[in-house]
Amino acid sequence: MFKKILIANRGEIALRVIRTCKEMGIATVAVYSTADRDSLHVRFADEAVCIGPPPSKESYLKIPNIIAAAEITNADAIHPGYGFLSENATFSKVCKENGIKFIGASPEMIDAMGDKASAKQTMKDAGVPTIPGSDGLLEDLKEARTIAKKIKYPVMLKATAGGGGKGMRVCKDETELDDAWEKVRREAGAAFGNDGIYMEKFVEEPRHIEIQIAGDQYGKACHLSERDCSIQRRHQKLVEETPSPFMTDELREQMGQAAIKAAEAVRYEGVGTVEFLVDKNRDFYFMEMNTRIQVEHTITEEVINYDLVKEQIKLAAGEPISGRNYYPKMHSIQCRINAEDPFKGFTPCPGKITAYHSPGGHGVRVDTHAYAGYVIPPHYDSMISKLITVAQTREEAITKMQRALDEYIIEGIKTTIPFHQRLMRDEKFRSGNFNTKFLETFEM
Question: What values do phi and psi take at 297, rounded to 5?
Answer without folding.
Answer: -60, -20
